[in-house]
Design brief:
It contains eight helices and 13 strands. The protein is α+β, with helices and mostly antiparallel strands and 330 residues long. The strands form three sheets. The chain has a six-stranded antiparallel barrel with strand order 2-3-4-7-6-5. Strands 9-10-11-13 form a four-stranded antiparallel sheet. Strands 1-12 form a two-stranded parallel sheet. Helix 6 packs across helix 7 and helix 7 crosses helix 8. It is elongated. The protein starts with 44 loop residues before the first helix and ends in a 7-residue tail after the last strand.
Length: 330
């Protein structure tokens, strides 16, 4: 595509993050953006009085959003992320009399995702080898992914292994623990579910231990809250530009963000609720990369909306209907 120059009189959209270089076809303007969520950029007052300038924008490659592989983290990675972000769950086992019993426990995890539990005398008396640990993580008040770990409750015999488990507990809760109370669950398989009404997917022990938790896990909730609070107009714009839907969006809300993209809940004027996955153009590895990708997609979507660029990308076509009665939480 040949280079082109556009004459623009309207202001550019507000940015969530400080603007950085992004490999999308962008129109570069000298006027500072109206609002930023983080630390404002320093602007030369004299330079700000100069007339707007448009630089040449060259389309280097089309934007690909609809993909069949790598669009969403695999179930094993989601389970590892849930376990890393949670510290409490429900331990289920059977009493000596044969009664099923579940009770709340705190847990830590080691480097392989092995759950580490501190059980008091009462719990040790009613616990048997086989057990399950159910853990769930609430996301934006509208979705609760969860995983259930099945395995054997064991007491490590190796002194060094036991000390490592105690170290994992101390790191998670910042408290010393008596080694006699420490147990670990030898993971046999994991059931991962996206939400309460969803069907689960079984994950093998090898898949679970080999997966890495998402690199954005420690900042994901903060980013999502900031976007929904300060830049909700970008979420609406994404739903109109990047998503191929046949309904008018009444409400939109970002649910979660990870290294491959983010999930958005949409509500139509007919009150039907859908969830759509909008992937990043490329995988991100940290918070800075996620902010840069969001900025680039926001700028690109704004330019498409203003007809400064002809849309040359594949829109996301898969929307999952959640219900026709659900309400997006403000």
């Amino acid at each position: 595509m040949l280079p082109h120059i556009q004459s623009i009189s309207s202001s550019v959209p507000p940015s969530l993050f400080p603007v950085t270089h992004f490999p999308f076809p962008l129109v570069s303007l000298s006027e500072p953006r109206n609002r930023v969520l983080f630390k404002p950029l320093k602007v030369d007052r004299l330079a700000a009085r100069k007339p707007l300038k448009c630089l040449v924008s060259v389309v280097s490659e089309p934007l690909h959003l609809e993909s069949t592989n790598g669009q969403r983290p695999i179930p094993a990675e989601v389970s590892r992320t849930i376990m890393e972000l949670s510290s409490a769950g429900t331990l289920s086992t059977v009493t000596p009399e044969g009664w099923p019993l579940g009770f709340g426990v705190r847990f830590a995890v080691d480097g392989n995702g092995t759950p580490v539990l501190c059980l008091n005398d009462f719990a040790k008396k009613i616990s048997i080898d086989r057990c399950s640990l159910h853990v769930q993580l609430e996301q934006s008040g509208v979705r609760t992914p969860q995983c259930t770990i099945q395995g054997n409750l064991e007491k490590p015999r190796d002194r060094m292994a036991l000390r490592k488990l105690c170290s994992a507990w101390n790191k998670r809760f910042n408290e010393e623990v008596d080694e006699s109370y420490i147990y670990a669950i030898n993971v046999e398989r994991v059931l991962q579910m996206e939400d309460f009404p969803e069907d689960g997917i079984w994950v093998t022990s090898l898949e679970y231990s080999s997966a890495d938790p998402d690199p954005l896990r420690d900042c994901a909730e903060k980013i999502v809250d900031e976007i929904n609070t300060n830049n909700l107009e970008d979420v609406y714009r994404f739903s109109n530009v990047f998503v191929d839907s046949d309904f008018q969006v009444l409400d939109a809300k970002m649910v979660w963000i990870d290294r491959l993209g983010f999930d958005v809940r949409l509500r139509s004027v007919q009150k039907d609720v859908y969830e759509v996955r909008i992937p990043f153009p490329r995988e991100v590895a940290d918070e800075k990369g996620a902010k840069s990708s969001f900025n680039g997609m926001s700028q690109f979507a704004w330019e498409v909306e203003k007809n400064y660029h002809v849309p040359e990308f594949n829109k996301v076509k898969h929307l999952k209907k959640i219900s026709n009665t659900a309400i997006l939480v403000e």
